[in-house]
Design a protein that fits this description.
With 736 residues, the chain is of the alpha/beta class. It contains 25 helices and 28 strands. The N terminus and C terminus are likely disordered. It is elongated and about 160 Å long. The strands form six sheets. Strands 20, 21, 22, 23, 24, 25, 26, 27 and 28 form a nine-stranded mixed β-sheet that branches. Helix content is 42%, strand content 22%. The chain folds into four domains: 137 residues, 3-Layer(aba) Sandwich (Rossmann fold); 121 residues, 2-Layer Sandwich (Beta-Lactamase); 162 residues, Reverse transcriptase/Diguanylate cyclase domain (Alpha-Beta Plaits, 2-Layer Sandwich), CATH 3.30.70; 218 residues, EAL domain (TIM Barrel, Alpha-Beta Barrel), CATH 3.20.20.450. The termini are far apart. It is an enzyme of class 3 (hydrolase). Pfam families: EAL, GGDEF, PAS, Response_reg.
Length: 736
């Protein structure tokens, strides 16, 4: 229990001194051992020089008591051995030779003390105690020197390898010391700066800030802490460090005064020696802060101002306009057809397109105008100091014209347009929020009416915009509330006697507005990204109903389902259709998909891939509204087309005085030559029916026969009208 233990050290009691007594007189050696043992010393004896050297070689002793005269190896040779072998044992010579020369010779050979025989015991003990004390003091002094040397070495290492600039100024403010880091960071060698005034290194704009700080004289809590300022860099050193894009580097300074002493008493006067300072490179932190500030106010994709910065600038411009009585215009730009590009070619191409659009629009603006991106494909423009509304209209036309030429993005030729809404301060709003909101409303009115162009805000647009928002919210609820329904319109053979097909037509049973047709909401479904879910519901519902009619034995050969512009671009479309057919057990031969010509020509390679994959499962492909788009014999040969549907506009134009007959004649003739099924839409009169039958049009649908109707009503018609078989209508190309 006498030991005190800590985590780092175990303090042991001091060991008694080790003494080696050497004398060739056994009786004297024995009494010497007893004397020293009584005084607490551990004594080892040696009766001759040979055994003494052996003991010194193998053991450590604090003191050796040596008699000079011994028969074999005398005391002088033992002392020479101790010196030659660098043995750290202090020697006291005990000799009967009383001459002065003997004592001097012993001390010269390394003895620490000389005691003449005979001696009093107290004399010997005193000499041993004095020698041990000198030994202790010497050991402590050596230890202190070693620690000082190590501390100086460590301090020199820390200073020379510090990532910071460490400097010392004299009382005049001139550099007396700089560590090597100054050359690495600033490009100046230490030799160039030693003796120079600190102001030669401080950036000229920060000289006042550095005064009394860089050459700090205060100490303690009043000394300079974490002061940010800039230091000059050497011109030929610029570019070797990330901060040298300019001729200054940002640093954080800590400095304190240096004094000759701390003042041991109240009367002592401290003398100023200079300043000790540490300058830390914070250019990396400053750069990170600049990036954070930039990201807070800019769109990271395009580099344009974001909503926050746009509103800040708009508020400043509004405040200025109020003082001088000027107008301010805010333009809300929404890109047309961008969603198609983004969904078809992916976000990487879409992002590149947004950046290219931003660059084009920027060329249409003045230096003081602001173009910002709010997100997605929405941009806003701020036009300060507008003298009249025509000036804003001119900018709108310039933007629309600039977007008209195609964009070449990654070998894709892409077309986008713009719908632009404009609001003007102060007539259309007094705050930033009002101006942006009303410009947005004006943009939506353009999108709903013409899809492309521009319009200035007017108060009557509010109701239209409100209806648009209500419709969007209702559309999102329609799927979950089961508000969509399918109406079916039968297709009849040439004679009008047999049902040869059915077209599934989507309707929305709106809880407030009643029955809505696709033209009222399909574009909105595409715009808000719901078209995929809507198409999936149409496919599942129509295929399930067709399978029920097949099981009853009343089904016609095929049911036709329309695909929207965005449907064919969805990568999972084929799997979605096949999964639905498999889930309900309906063969692919019972399904026909209707697409428009415009959809095909947007990306013929993608259309070929998708349609061939569907055709391999027996699914037929029909071209809807044929003749109204980019009709081309090349894609009719290239794609697995089964049916051409003549648009109702041509059918309604059939009369003896009209040129519509020649168009329909040409379509029917082309279909016959390509072995395609021809179906006429919108047949409403007996004359149209008779004329089409005469031209051997294979199928017809329209109000002459039936309007689109719920499944229950069509079911009764199918039961009373014998459905046509596959042989009653023309077979698809390539089929028997």
């Amino acid at each position: 229990m006498g030991h005190h233990k800590t985590l780092l050290h175990i303090h042991m009691p001091p060991q008694p001194p080790q003494i080696l007594a050497i004398d060739d007189e056994p009786r004297l050696l024995s009494s010497l051992k007893q004397l020293l043992a009584l005084n607490g010393y551990v004594v080892t004896t040696a009766g001759d020089g040979q055994s003494a050297i052996a003991q010194l070689r193998t053991n450590n002793y604090d003191i050796a008591l040596i008699d000079l005269k011994m028969p074999d190896i005398d005391g002088r040779e033992i002392m020479r051995y101790v010196t030659e072998q660098n043995i750290h044992t202090d020697i006291i010579v005990i000799s009967g030779e009383a001459s002065f020369e003997t004592a001097v010779d012993a001390l010269r050979l390394g003895a620490h003390d000389f005691l003449l025989k005979p001696y009093a015991p107290e004399q010997l003990i005193k000499r041993i105690e004095n020698t041990l004390e000198r030994r202790r003091l010497k050991t402590e002094s050596t230890d202190i020197q070693e620690r000082l040397k190590h501390s100086e070495k460590l301090h020199r290492f820390l200073v020379n390898t510090s990532p910071d600039i460490i400097y010392v100024l004299n009382e005049e403010g001139n550099f007396t010391f700089l560590n090597p880091r100054v050359q690495q960071l600033l490009g100046f060698s230490r030799e160039e700066l030693i003796g120079k005034h600190y102001t030669s290194l401080v950036h000229e704009e920060d000289l006042e800030l550095a005064r009394y700080a860089f050459n700090e004289r205060r100490t303690g809590t009043r000394a300079t802490r974490n002061l940010e300022l800039r230091l000059r860099t050497k011109d030929d050193h610029r570019g070797t460090h990330k901060s040298f894009a300019t001729s200054a580097m940002c640093i954080e300074l800590n400095a304190t005064g240096l004094y000759s002493n701390a003042g041991k008493s109240a009367g002592d006067e401290r003398r100023l020696l200079g300043t000790y300072g540490v300058a830390r490179d914070i250019s990396g932190r400053k750069q990170a802060e600049a990036i954070i500030r930039y990201q807070a106010y800019h769109d990271l994709l395009t580099g344009l101002p974001n909503r926050t910065l746009f509103k800040d600038r708009l508020n400043m411009v509004i405040a200025q306009a109020k003082r001088v009585g000027q107008m301010v215009a805010v333009m809300f730009i929404d890109l047309d057809r961008f969603k198609i590009v983004n969904d078809t070619l992916g976000h990487i191409i879409g992002d590149q397109l947004l950046r290219a659009v931003g660059r084009r629009v920027q060329t249409c603006l003045r230096e003081g105008d602001t173009l910002a991106r709010l997100g997605g494909d929405e941009f806003v423009v701020l036009l300060p100091q507008v003298t009249h509304r025509d000036a804003a209209a001119t900018v709108c036309r310039k933007i629309i014209d600039s977007l008209a030429p195609p964009f070449m993005i990654d070998q894709h030729e892409l077309f986008v347009g713009a719908s632009i809404g404009v609001s003007v301060f102060p007539t259309d709003g007094a705050t930033d929020e009002e101006l942006i909101k009303n410009a947005d409303i004006a943009m939506y009115s353009v999108k709903n009416d013409t899809r492309g162009g521009y319009a200035f805000y007017s108060s009557n647009m509010n109701s239209q915009f409100s209806q648009h928002l209500d419709l969007e919210m209702g559309l999102r609820r329609a799927l979950t509330n089961h508000e969509f329904v399918i109406h079916y319109q039968p297709q009849y053979d040439t004679q009008g006697l047999h049902v040869c097909g059915i077209e599934a037509l989507l309707r929305w049973q709106h809880p407030e507005r009643g029955l809505l047709y696709p033209g009222d909401f399909i574009h909105l479904a595409e715009e808000v990204g719901l078209i995929g879910q809507v198409t999936e519901w149409i496919l599942d519902t129509s295929i399930r109903q067709m399978k029920a009619w097949v099981d009853e034995g009343i089904a016609p050969p095929r049911i036709a389902i329309n695909l929207s512009t965005l449907d064919l671009k969805r990568s999972n479309l084929v799997d979605e259709i096949i999964d639905s057919l498999d889930r309900h057990g309906l063969p692919g031969q019972n399904l026909e998909l209707e697409i428009t010509e415009n959809l095909i020509v947007q990306d013929i390679n993608m259309a070929t891939q998708r349609l061939n994959a569907l055709a391999r499962h027996g699914i037929s492909i029909a071209i809807d509204d044929f003749g109204t788009g980019y009709s081309s014999l090349s894609y009719l040969h290239q794609l697995p087309i089964h049916t051409l549907k003549i648009d109702r506009s041509f059918v309604q134009d059939i009369d003896p005085e009209s040129t519509g007959r020649s168009v329909v004649d040409a379509i029917i003739a082309m279909g016959h030559s390509l072995d395609l099924t021809i179906v006429a839409e919108g047949v409403e009169t007996q004359e149209q029916h008779a004329w089409l039958a005469q031209r051997e049009c294979h199928g017809m649908q329209g109000y002459l026969f039936n309007r689109p109707m719920p499944a229950e009503e069509l079911q009764s018609i199918l039961k009373t009208s014998r459905p046509a078989t596959h042989s009653m209508i023309a077979a698809p190309a390539g089929e028997e």
